[in-house]
Amino acid sequence: MRRLVLLRHGRTEWNDTGRAQGHADVPLDEVGEAQAKAVAPVLAALRPVAVWSSDLARAAATAAVVAAEAGLEPVLDPRLREYDVGRNRVGLTDEQYAGAHPDEHAALLAGDIAAIPGRETRADVVARLLPALTSYADGLGEGETGIVVSHGAALRTAVPAFLGWGDDAGDGLGVLANCGWVELTHSASAWTGGAVRWRLTAWNRVVA
To answer: Does this model's pTM top 0.90?
Structure first.
């Protein structure tokens, strides 16, 4: 069995206040630092062979704690970044965005992403993350585990794409908690006649 563990970064002050982050380099707050320290020994116990991370500060800081606990150095990969939410959305709550940029907010609600300057589409994010996840998965040997530290919305988009689900399958997945993680395993299943493939085995696990 091969295993990929996909971890959302710890909390930031912007998470706490509902401000959109996108590609902004927002650091972990004290709660986020504590979350990273709490999850690190749990994931290190899986004996990962590698830790890959988004290069944004909140993910990189989380990855550094996890990797240090496992005796590894994190590899930063900008392909693992969160959605770019567009220059006018960064740093604003949804209410603030609606007030300051009502046309863009209406386009967002209507799913008209092309009308929002600088905002990435689902296809854009899949085009970044799917090759990254595939390369990590292909590099794992039998019995090995790799850890990926990324972002909530990006992972909800990338996981269904990686598993070959429908384009909107991520809409049926719950929001990942800060330092919540996903487990994907590559193994056989009696339910599918022994076929070997990647499967979702856990979604939004958190430290108790």
So the answer is: yes
